[in-house]
Write a structure and sequence with these properties.
By secondary structure, the chain is α/β, with parallel strands linked by helices. The chain has twelve helices and 14 strands.
Amino acid sequence: MSTTFSLLGQGLKLNTRADIEPHLAKFDPTSIEEIHFGGNTVGVEAAEALAEFLAKTTKLRVANFADIFTGRLISEIPPALSAICDALIGKPTLVEIDLSDNAFGGRSVDPIVPFLSSARSLRVLKLNNNGLGPAGGTVIADALATLARELPAGTPSALRTVICGRNRLEDGSAAAWAAALAAHGTLEEVRMPQNGIRMDGAVRIVEALARNAALAHFDLQDNTFGDPGTDAVAAALARGAWPALRVLNLSDCVIGKEGEVSPVVSALAKGLQSKLELLQLQNDNLETEECAILAGVVGKMPLLKRVELQWNEVEAEDESVVALLTALRRQGGKLILDDDEEEEEEEEGGGRG
């Protein structure tokens, strides 16, 4: 029998046991390795039947429950979510869960805690666009901190990826998130864009991420770093905190000032991030001098294939921009200066996907 159970994107409205049981009956739960329910809507009774199925799984590795509560009353979400998450507790094979695009808000997030605080095998956590707010974000972060804290002595965390963007986490949850991210120390990919995090919160999170030496994908786009956050990132880069870094996304983070070289660009000039492949610095108040500095360091980053500088104070004809473009082309790379270039690229099938 198939090892993947998928109803992905079918737009099913599963209210009762009678609605969901014909789908469940097609699969032997003991053979399932992946389950994909995203893009359907699940009520309490259907969730309870699904939970009974999940409880019988013995090989489950991937659980995709993104966007499963569209159109549900706020009162329906906690019991349905509790049934599903409780059924996943203690699954030693489970390495990935996706609960993105569910309107939990701070009021409905508690049912995740028993699972998340004990999920020792979990490698990938996706909680994107859940409306958590500072209160809900703190609940999730505290659960992750508990997970790290309660590992047996000498046992490294399994967690490698945390995706928690578009959640209005703000500074109110930054201390909790910093504690959680630092406690694991094993993270390779952290994406927390568009969360309304400001200067003090950015400093806390950056300093926590600096304790994750294997970090390869750093995305804090569209949070306000200002001088304190910018200096924190620059300090980490300058001391080589992330030698495995492949993607750095600081677009829309206010890391530059008119007439001054951004400390982040100065830190990158040391060339310590030799594995960097993608550098995203859109709309960051950068000027031609930063382009000149980047042009000089491209050779120290032989894998760098894309630099995105849209909406900065630079023009394609600037000498330093031409130098940067030339240096990138020399190693098969691209410089993106406006959104039209990106749109053309996507139309040609060459977008980042």
